[in-house]
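Hi support team,

I submitted a single chain yesterday and got back a structure, but I'm not sure I'm reading the token output correctly. Could someone confirm the output below corresponds to the sequence I sent? I've pasted both exactly as they appear in my results page.

Thanks,
R.
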Amino acid sequence: MNNKEISSYIETFSTILIALTLFLLPLFFLTNTTDFFVVPKQILIIITTVALIVVFCIKIILERKIVFTTSPLNLPVALFGAVILISSILSQNRYDALIQAVPALAAIFFFFAIINNVREKNSFSIVLTSLLLGAAASALLSIAYNFKIYVLPIPSIQSELFNTFGSNLQQLIFLIPVLVFSLLYLGKTLGFPKLAASASRGAAFFIQLIAGIAILGGVLLIIYQIVTSPNKPVILPYIYGFQTAFATISQDAQRFIFSLLFGSGYGTFLVDFTRYKLPSFNLEPNLWNLTFSYSSSYVLELIATTGILGGIAFIFMLFSTFKMRASKNALFTSVFAGFILAFILPFSYANVVLLFVLLALYISYLNIEGDKNVYDVLLSLVASKSGMFAFEATPESQPGRKSESAALSIISSLVLLAIVGTASFFTYKFIVSDTAFAASLSQANLNNGQKTYQLQASAINDFPYRSDYHRIFSQVNMALANSIASGIPQGSSPSAQVQQNISTLLQQGITSGRNAAVVSPLTSVNWQNLGQTYRSLINVGQNAEQFSISSYNQAIALDPYNPNLYLQLGGIYYQLKLWDQAQGQFQIAINLKRDFANAYYNLGKALEQKGDLENALAAYNIVKQLSEKNKENLDQINKDIAAIEAQIGSKKTETGENIQPQGGQQTPLTVNEQPPAALPTQNPPLKISPPPGTTPPASESAN
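Hi R., thanks for writing in. Yes, this is the structure output for that exact sequence:
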């Protein structure tokens, strides 16, 4: 075969690969990854994009020239990708941001791959039909499962509410733009509103018709499920989405310019939410105890995570698309629907990809139709009169213009292959790590502590850049240490080997907890976990109580309006019998959430320990008011009230306050007195590492 034939096969392969990917995009999920739905779709797009870049490099080397499609969207899409990359590199939670940025950048490369490969009507029809059929198959699968027709032999997904997105809202967002295109295309083909007959209709039309009906059925089913289900999709209220977005880019005094321009880092909205949510969020009865990884809408999330430049780049894409608008064009209307949804609803990864796919298909359509704004360009490397080399970009159709050097093709290929090679290596490590960690969380392995330990250790060794791996591994180490300690007969001394095993697990638990905080230093839950780890080592590890308090204070600094954190910090002081400090923390928790029954309960216990029985009884009576609809809590508090009234010698039930619960599920009443499991006291205490970024106490440093 000559080079021209090979290039033709490459183009065919690329078209088939793009079509297959678009068919699989709404369908693809795996049950052996930590996330069944998002992670597999990210892997799919990354692998496809890498493959397309590799064959593109082969093609340009064979042809000794670079031909690419230019359009008014190329620059805004490229700028959007650049902002995503820069925001991630500048992020303080850099690894979290880069892990989310790489799939997003793959979606942007996929956009360029589509517009540079889909240049003919046949390939365009194949690719577009594949997208419609994939959406239709996803809708049909949801319909089948809704009627308990479990077509896939996977027991873990046999549920009436199963869908291939993991969220009926995200599936609805995906199906709506596709449905808009399908309905407009069918209406135009039928001659709507006259519905004239057409002899030109063939198999393609009927495929589109069946797909459109299936997608419409899926949309109607999802809307019905959302309206009738008691468990409706949880979306961050817009007031908090707006507030978090603009607080993120304006209130970080330490890096104001970076935050203003580039936000907190793509994909790190969870950090923004915990840092900047309003105290009034605690008034939300069903939401106050939740954290949100997505903002109220994709655009608000972009403003928070990529700053004003990310928002401007997105608006730039929108206006560039409108400048190329074609009236009564089904694809343009579909793209427009996608942009509207981005402004009003949160997007999962599949919907971000869909938006770029629709934009790419619209550009391909304009290219095929001969729009003057979209055309192919030949990029050449030519020698100037001065002997220097320079780039030239000319319309490929211009006669007499050929690339004068193969050097540009080779250099470009080497750069692209270096990029995709690096991305492929880390993607491979990520996949191996993710599947191993997912296996460690399966029920069979959770019942086998050693197997869980081995799988998680292997996952972290393969890909040590995910803080949740380290955080969970620290908990596993502490659980195994407690399990061994609980097996020691009471009153007996453990053997030297058992002591060594416990000590090793404890040190690994601390190291993993610290690593989580180092990898993602702005993630409050990592510091909370580290505080819990140190707390379980009080009377075991040297300075454990100081390290625990320090870690919780850092968690509070990153999530300052979370009443649970103050409750837990108060519990440490309570455990240490520092009643005044415990009282202070419980009171802050109450101030943040006036109907927090468990905070009043712990406050009452602290006051009771101080001997302030009158105020303790007042706190208990507030707990009783708040527990009227919770029989278990009500029974518990009645016992405590009876006991304290017996001590006082009279029944004083007036509280001076009438606080009513705001609704939502009430947590059980517990005294935050000590961690769930207590390790045997070590004498002398183990030397343990302090939290990251802190200086060991002087006594320890001297040692």
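A quick pointer for reading it: Residues 407-440 form the longest helix (34 residues). Let us know if anything else looks off.

Best,
Support desk
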